[in-house]
Structures are given as C-alpha cells and as structure tokens.
Amino acid sequence: MALFQCSFFSESLRISASMNVILPQACRSQIGMDSTTDAEPPAVLYLLHGITDDHSTWLRRTSIERYVTKLPLAVVMPAVNRSFYTDIGDDAYWTFISEELPQIVQSFFRVSKDWKKTFVAGLSMGGYGAFKLGLTCPDRYAAAASLSGALDVVSAAKAHTDICNFDRIFGSSEALAGSSNDLFTLINRFPSDSETKFYQCCGTEDFLYQDNLTFKTRARQAGLNLTFEEHPDAVHNWDYWDQQIQRVLEWLPLGEA
User: Which PANTHER family does its entry note (predicted)?
Assistant: First the structure.
C-alpha cells in the first residue's frame, strides 16, 4: 500500500485542508504485506472522523492500512474539524465533503468514478456524516456505514450537548428538526428505488445506543436496505471501532462493483 499525506487548498473552505489517502500498490517483497493491483482504478472509501479527531486518527488508532492491503480499495480520510459535516455560515464543510472533495480526489489520484465503487463510512460524528452523504446523495454512494453514529442530532441539540456546540453548527433545535441536516427527515425523503446499502453498528453500553435503536427502527420502517448489528458491553472507544472497521470492509459490496 501507498500512503499519501496531502495538504491542498479548498475553495469551499477558503483555507488549506488536509487528508490522508491509502492507495493500492502491487508489492511482493515487503514482509507480511503482499498485495496486487487491478487494471481498473480501485474503488474508493471516504472514511470520516469523529468530533475530537482529525484526518490522522484512523491511521493512528486502527490498522486500517493493513486491513485494506489485499483489497482493490483506496481510502480517503479528510479533516473537517468539529463541523458535523455541515455548512456553518461561511465555513462550507458540507459543500467541501459532498462536492469539492470527491472532485479533488479524482483529479489527484487514480480512483474509480463509478458510484457503484464509491463508499463512505465514519464513526460517531463521522457516522452521522456518512449517513448524511448516503441519504442525501444515493446516486453517488453504493454503501454507507455508521460506527456508533451520532444519528439523532435533533435530540442532542435539544439536550444542549455542550461538547458538540450544536447551536453554533445547526442553529436552534426547532430549525434543525425537519431540515436537510436531520437524518430522520432525510430517511423520509429517500427514494424507494435506491440501491444504496447502509450498515449500522453500536455497542449496547454506548451513550448513543438508544439513538441508534431509534434510527434503526425508522430506517427499517421506511424500507432502507439496512444491516444493523449491536454488540453487548461495547462502548464508545477505539477498541470497538478497530474491530468494526474490519467488519465494514467485509460488508462493502466490492464484489458487486
């Protein structure tokens, strides 16, 4: 595998931005890392971070590079600060992640442009971002995965969760409910003929567990193609996410692409 640590200018954010990118590399001599590449450009997974993290955290806290060694898959890990993948006034993080970043990745790297080979996943805040992308842009993502996702932002906003600064990000909870930032509203708008698949997991001892159960119920009532897994005694930490990102990689429809 090849690892690119990339700094570039974002027109959406009007600042320099950062991402780490893992790309497949044909390799026979590196001990324990034998890999091959296909003639076709690899599929791409956008892997999103949580609220206290940045573009480096998936590499630092998991073995994601090793896990994708034998897969025809590029992994893009961008930094979005504490934005909840949302446009905040002039800080256009949703525009950046949904529109600008894929164009930049495709211009910089040899990755597939086929929506059937394009996936998104994330943890906590990144789980919200992954499902927001999958629900908003089903024509661009074949699969979206949430690990311990912060999926009910309306309830969190009403609870005035200070760590998230929801008033700054979303405005009032009244304005948030029913908006394009409310995943439950996006579920109701989701096209019934979409082929996008969703994967959701959460530990039973996670503080976001009940929100995840609520999302699961609403998603299944709406007919989403959702795989849901819960894990007894698991909490909101990297031991769990390091295990579950391996499960996500197994679940991704790479063979169907």
Answer: DIACYLGLYCEROL ACYLTRANSFERASE_MYCOLYLTRANSFERASE AG85A, ENTEROCHELIN ESTERASE-RELATED
